[in-house]
Amino acid sequence: MDAYNYEGYGQCDIGAPDFFSVAKVGAPAPDFSLTTLDGDRVSLADFTEQKHIVLEFGSVT
Amino acid sequence: MGEVPPLTRLREKYRPKGFEFFIVYVREAHPGENFPHHASFEQKLAHARKLRELERVEIPILLDDLAGTAHRAYGLLPNMVYLIERGGTIVYKSDWTDSQELDGVCESLLRLDEMKERGAPIIRKGVSERLHWIPMEPAERERIYRRSGAKAIKDYLNAKGHLPYASDREIKK
Fold it and tell me: Do A61 and B82 touch (CB under 8 A)?
């Protein structure tokens, strides 16, 4: 079974980080490489040079 | 994720003032028959496109990888939100998107920009910690869970002991 992509809500992560122990306020935001819906790769650093960034996490469910 | 319309309004308000908004698409929080857990990146991409279509999302959606690398780095919660200052420092994080509070913290970054622009001699950096409360519409929650499928509702009921759209009063009974 894939622990990250759980099949049903309630199947908890083993060793999941605590929200307030990672990516802390005042610290550098962890860089990432993500994919746009058009298939382009983008990194956080592409944007933070010029802009303030709001990141909202979510899914369709 | 948090409701799309309030976030869209915030984006419209702050985008002309040097902000950029993104939705990071992560794992399914409540997998159901219609939107099961992701078994491939292509499936995750299809779900993200469906989200854009169903909620008419104008905010650019960025997909995390299948293993959830970025999601993990930011704390794995399903509806969390971050504000990152130009230059890359995290100035705000919340475990659940509260658009009213987010509006306030974006405002405070604007004030910082203004202070820097007029050359304020001393800018003291402070840190806050607070609780906040977000009202939720039972009907809206029911809509999202039903869209995922009966399995999503059943799994929530099994895990929490009440329906995802039960009111606080009903839960206390």
Answer: no
Do residues B28 and A60 make contact, with C-beta atoms less than 8 angstroms apart? yes
Let me know: does B136 contact B145? Beta carbons within 8 Å: no
Using an 8 Å CB-CB cutoff, list chain B residues near A30: 70, 73-74
Mutate to test the interface with A, among B8, B12, B37 (most CBs of A within 10 A): B37
* B37/A28 touch (CB, cutoff 8 Å), yes or no: no
Distance in angstroms (rounded) separating the CA atoms of residues B125 and B19: 20
Pair B109, B83: CB distance under 8 Å: yes
* Average pLDDT rounded to a whole number, residues B101-127: 96
Residue A34 has phi, psi (to 5 degrees) of: -120, 170
Which member of A4, A47, A57 has the closest CB to residue B74?
A: A57
| pTM as predicted | 0.95
ipTM: 0.94
Contact B34, B153 (CB under 8 A): no
If phi > 0 it is left, if psi is from -120 to 50 it is alpha, else beta; for residue B164 that is alpha
Tell me the pLDDT tens digit for each residue of A22-56. Answer: 999 999 999 999 999 999 999 999 999 999 999 99
pLDDT confidence band for B17 (50 / 70 / 90): very high
Using one digit for the tens of pLDDT, what is the confidence trace for B40-55?
999 999 999 999 999 9
